[in-house]
Amino acid sequence: MKITIVGTGYVGLVTGACLAEIGNDVFCLDVDPRKIDVLNSGGVPIHEPGLKEIIDRSRAAGRLTFSTDVVASIAHGDVQFIAVGTPPSEDGSADLNYVLAAARDIGRHMNGFKIIVDKSTVPVGTAQHVRDTISQELGRRGMRQEFSVVSNPEFLKEGAAVDDFMRPDRIVIGSDSDEAGQRARDMMKRLYAPFNRNHDRTLHMDVRSAEFTKYAANAMLATRISFMNELANLADSVGADIEAVRRGIGSDPRIGYDFLYAGAGYGGSCFPKDVRALIQTGAEYGRTLRILDAVEAVNDAQKQVLIEKITHRFGEDLTGRSFAVWGLAFKPNTDDMREAPSRTLIAALLQRGASVKAYDPVAIDAARGAFALDLKDDPAAHSRLAFVKNQHDALPGADALLIVTEWKAFKSPDFTALKVALNAPIVFDGRNLYEPAVMADLGFEYHTIGRSL
Ligand code: UGA
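^ thats the input. predicted complex w/ uridine-5'-diphosphate-glucuronic acid below
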């Protein structure tokens, strides 16, 4: 099929590359010429396992084109994916300006029946805005052209996005029941047929329910995390082990084991933004989403838990103290620093007078940018932050090691070398990577999230 993807950000690029990988002819359009230049010269602007390989393969086969040419790109695809950003507005609602600009471009240049697919995470009712925007543009051109708007939310996880796209749990397709909608539904079914393993994984529903499903999924997952974080803090108080509790409840198939890990709080570009956007949608309809208000409040507090444990141990004034930090990205296998708990923690340490040496396997460049922004008003604090190229280099002279992201390379370190390098054998682990009993045997003072028996 001929496909156009508007927006070569995270979602757009993965979608375009994966659809090209299975033989579709894909145009990826972006307004940013620098991004398109990078892609056209063989680079990939984001870190995502497996993505470069499939981009290179499809480009070499002539199935994947990157372009800033709006007219040619929109003429190309029978299916037009809108995969542009929906950043949060000041009130937490999703800003739809980019989505509607893409819809205007499509309306201005479309030249036959098109299926317009909302792939960006957009609030309930957005498909209707997209439809109205396209109709307006067609009206301006004096054209009567049929089209249909479909909602097809993505459920990709950063760090596993290619695999998630290629082997989806489910493919949600929201379409209208009119004739154009049925045509769109059939085409979407065909487009996604190669991704069905064992059984048909497409879930067809109305457009609004599809839009809602995306927010409901992320809100549910964020709720599980905040729930476990709250229980972990209580476990610390009562002297229980949250990891044993996780296994104890996860064995109930109605609960399941996944997404029950207590930690330093959830971050990234999706959960914080989508929880806020759903709260905001509730407010627009006069409904307070009390559970989600609490989910967000618990998460904000959870990002402070490590600093609270550190100040409890070392005192409020950390002047002259030095800390090693392992892990900066909001989770492993990505360089994404958006809403990463490391940002809250490191800023708090620096502002209390401490020095920090930080290491991350891939996020150091992104982290430099993030901290330059976060600490722009406090150059003295900023000057006490250094990045190191090797995880061991963060340790010498540090009063404690702090673990914020659960990269695989941190799971089994040389504990003897660790002990020798640190000023004192103290570890604050925001991801519960080690067994407390083993750490005690090794002579470490080991602070966890919810495992302080
Ligand atoms: C999330 C969803 O998992 C995807 O299904 C969804 O498509 C995506 O958002 C999106 O809306 O685009 P992602 O943000 O990439 O994916 O990352 P997750 O793996 O879900 O992790 C989110 C945060 O939760 C991370 O900070 C992680 O450390 C934290 N987390 C996750 C926990 O603290 N505990 C857990 O048990 C699981």
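The pocket of uridine-5'-diphosphate-glucuronic acid is lined by residues 121, 154-158, 218, 221, 225, 259-261, 263, 266-268, 270-271, 330-331 (CB under 6 Å).
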